[in-house]
Design brief:
Elements lengths: L28 H5 L9 E3 L6 H6 L4 E5 L2 H12 L1 H17 L1 H14 L3 H10 L26 H14 L3 E5 L2 H5 L7 E4 L18 H13 L3 E10 L4 E2 L11 E9 L1 H6 L9 E8 L2
Parallel strand pairs: 1-2, 1-4, 2-3, 4-5
Antiparallel strand pairs: 5-6, 5-8, 7-8
Helix pairs in contact: 3-4, 3-6, 4-5, 4-6, 4-7, 5-6
Length: 288
């Protein structure tokens, strides 16, 4: 087994989330990270999203990726030039105080005309419920303005400082998940948090994702000696419906159900309802 690859802040999540994102694991990252082995060569996350588990693990050797280029560029800027991200956010935030509707939809139009990490960060912080939704036909973001006010630039700055320290040893790549997972080797740990098959296709319509391709990539990583963790659909409708993913029989050794509260997507679709019937449980599948 290779050298320990987690930082000094092992298994403790950041105090507050940096990025609002559908499926954000901020509230459950500590529980998920608790199932990771104590030692590994490198920590790999091929669907970076909000980065909550990555930041909780704070690896001393990390590799993360996504096929949404502006998202990857945002993580790279957080490492290399956080001031540029903060400056653009602050500009839009101050304009938002005077005319929230105009500012939001100008930022949305700017992003859709030229997808970029600067507008994406502000939109994630100001869109409805943090539900970042993309159109299937052209990949444009389609989420309306939120009912909440985005956090202040001062608050964002504090969060960026903490998150930057936790991701400083991670390389971010713009590529498909299977390309990233092909780099997993003996002793590495891979955490996968892909778009959920039964609940998030509407949100990721512009992104190409195949569950059979993921099974194949996990199998290859497992044969290479890596340990793979997968968060995926589990139960919905408050446990009344268990979701069948067609998981290969010999791929995973353990299954843990993690309660994640009421469906974020249903909150978006059923505004004003209490949703007692929409409690969701995720599966956490482990290959060892």
């Amino acid at each position: 087994m290779r050298q320990l690859a987690f930082g000094e802040i092992v298994r403790r999540p950041p105090q507050k989330q940096f990025l609002k994102w559908i499926g954000n694991k901020q509230r459950f990252a500590e529980e998920i990270a608790g199932y990771a082995p104590d030692e590994c060569g490198k920590f790999i996350e091929p669907f970076i999203g909000s980065g909550a588990v990555l930041a909780t693990m704070a690896p001393t050797l990390g590799l993360a990726s996504d096929n949404l280029k502006p998202l990857v560029e945002m993580w790279r800027l957080l490492q290399a030039d956080p001031g540029a991200l903060l400056k653009h956010y602050a500009k839009l935030w101050h304009e938002y105080q005077d005319d929230s509707n105009d500012t939001y939809y100008r930022a949305l139009a700017s992003y859709n005309e030229n997808p970029n990490p600067y507008d994406l960060l502000f939109l994630c912080r100001s869109c409805y419920g943090g539900v970042v939704r993309f159109r299937k036909d052209d990949g444009g973001m389609s989420t309306p303005i939120g009912i909440h006010r985005p956090i202040s630039p001062e608050s964002l700055d504090e969060r960026m400082r903490e998150w930057r320290a936790r991701i400083r040893n991670t390389k971010f790549m713009h590529c498909n998940f299977d390309e990233t997972m092909a780099q997993a080797g003996d002793g590495d740990v891979v955490y996968c948090d892909p778009p959920y098959v039964f609940s998030q296709q509407i949100l990721y319509g512009s992104q190409d994702f195949s569950l059979p391709k993921l099974w194949a990539a996990i199998s290859r990583a497992k044969k290479a000696g890596a340990k793979v963790m997968l968060s995926i659909d589990g139960k919905k409708k408050s446990g009344k419906v268990e979701l069948d993913l067609g998981t290969p029989d010999d791929l995973f050794e353990r299954e843990i159900m993690i309660g994640v509260g009421r469906s974020m997507l249903r909150r978006f679709q059923r505004k004003g309802e209490t949703l007692e019937d929409e409690e969701v449980h995720d599966r956490l599948l482990l290959t060892w």
